[in-house]
Amino acid sequence: MRPAFLLLISVLIFWGCAKTTTMAVAEPDWIRFSSKQGKFSALMPFQPKFSEEKQTTSSGEVVVHSYTSNPSSNVAYCVAFTQLPDKQRERAKEHPEIYFAAATKTALGTNSTLLKERQFASDGHPAHELQFVRPPADLVTMRMYITDDRFYTTICLVRTNAAASTNIFRFLDSFHLRK
To answer: Which of 63, 52, 64, 66 lies closest to 17 in space, CA to CA?
Structure first.
């Protein structure tokens, strides 16, 4: 089984959240960003850019909603979500570990080196964290969350030689799901 959101993981890591700008910015005071549509809040270096992309999957069309903040060419912070297709909601709720395992395999691809992995709960929802190095020199730390009807991903992508890595968990730990 290949859940529809596996495409979401690939899109987020290798397209939307990996895009960085070339401007260099000193670290500003972070803001608490809240998305009414996304039903989440998170600390970000500045107001994120919103994008939507439709993807056709084996379970039908899904829309990937992403909010990305790129304070420099060395770091990107991203929160993304998609509505789980109706036929996958119950299965994802009952067996989140299957979805996390498949998403982990997709995120790592063939060239990444897994550094850390753990399962936990956040705001009463199953969650999974990965940290890996992706060639040529990107440290990717991501958390995935499954709610009753959505799949969320928070991603911090940092060039491994960048000092911005000190803010990885500042961003990830600030993510909260809202009703």
So the answer is: 66
